[in-house]
């Protein structure tokens, strides 16, 4: 007997192009939306959340939860004009919690929006040619592209990023009808809404990234599909393709696991969108729609085997997939921080944004600095896959202006930060994420300062060390491919994973379980001390841990 489809499959099928009862729910005098709308609103890039810091007090006082919404703005390749940055900055105050949150997939999130402001948010995004539509939900998510590939005299990768994003955008006009401009969509013809996805979209999310051939800032092996450019003297010839990565796990479901992608083959630039479409279609057709915990592409590949999967893709593509050109090998992960000049005479500066939270606080006024730069100069912003931001398009004579604005607002220069501070990531976790078991973003500064003390006192502060922290095993800050992955296990404990490689092509291994939060860094300390004295020449912490295998 075949298993029943999940409830979400029914909600999608009956949603009339992702509309459901969203419009009615938005009008209703309640602070939240119905449970079916909670599912559908994700396709519109919006998550229904509640403020978890006040959850208990409200419940004790028999008051309703504080319902808030998170909105994720889709930004292919993380590229924003200064005008778009400024509008996002204004929206942070007008309809959100006064911050912008740069994500590990180069998007921007707003937290703490009340239901009554969701339409204003969507309308103002639309006015600057941005949208949250497709930011979440069972679709191809924001296309991630190494910023340095886009900051180039050759626009081919920047254009390809936009082409890919457009190719997989859902066709329904529901978003504009419900959130932006009712009239425009009221006249929408249903026929024109038939899209690649079909009525039930994908079994779950699907993630695509375009990596730099030399370094792995996008974490190519963690993606459903990663494309790595191969070049001839005439420019980009095509891509080596990796498929089947994914990091999320679930403690309660032992059949879930992190998996690195495998090489699929080479595709020419012209055929790339159609090959990705064939992979997505294979997933659309074969992905598990009866169990959302196991509905990702990695499980399709695991279950049917790589050769059978390749055959399914070729069947849908109508061609054989060519073998890889050369091999895939990355030299670490670039953090893209500090000043660079990739295009002659045009400067860029990568600015560290701790855990991606663009805000003003007692340590720095990063948000104000970035706003003033966007107001003063016609620059372009790139959100990086490390939750940071690059300001690009600074002319020679403008370099002192930008340097001074960053300095006077207390924004740390790349050179003033240790490698461990430059590369650390943390997911939002509490108080917004409904799945968080414990803290991440808010604990990161304290955790990092302990790491800084250790590496400084052992004279290894100059060595790279990639630390990533999440509030649960879903893995949003990609801890499974970190050198030290600190993963929320219970309300006050973490699991510690160690031994991921510096270039992200080896999974970290679970080393310690349920470590109380206050003891996490102290637990890693003895191993760091061993690394300080026992490391082979230039040996990274991840490679050291893999060699000495303290978990064995
Ligand atoms: Fe994520 C769910 C935040 C990148 C794996 N992720 C969530 C939600 C929406 C929680 C929820 O379902 O209720 C989080 C919102 C929290 C909040 O309050 O903002 C959330 N994920 C994030 C972000 C903002 C983390 C960050 O620090 O930047 C990233 C947004 C990316 C974007 O702009 O689209 C983010 N999430 C990732 C990544 C990393 C990546 O894609 O490179 C992963 C691991 C890769 C993967 O997909 O396996 C990731 N997020 C998950 C999962 C586990 C999915 C799975 O199938 O295993 C969930 C849970 C789910 O989907 O049900 C999840
Ligand atoms: Fe939330 Fe878990 Fe993702 Fe962190 S890793 S944002 S706690 S889902």
Outline the structure in words.
The protein folds into four domains: 137 residues, Alpha-Beta Plaits (2-Layer Sandwich), CATH 3.30.70; 162 residues, Sulfite Reductase Hemoprotein, domain 1 (2-Layer Sandwich); 80 residues, Sulfite Reductase Hemoprotein,Domain 2 (Sulfite Reductase Hemoprotein, domain 2), CATH 3.90.480.10; 128 residues, Sulfite Reductase Hemoprotein, domain 1 (2-Layer Sandwich). Helices cover 32% and strands 19% of the residues. It contains 19 helices and 20 strands. The strands form four sheets. A five-stranded antiparallel beta sheet has the order 1-2-5-4-13. A five-stranded antiparallel beta sheet has the order 3-14-15-12-11. Strands 6-7-8-9-10 form a five-stranded mixed beta sheet. Helix 5 packs antiparallel against helix 6. The longest helix has 15 residues.
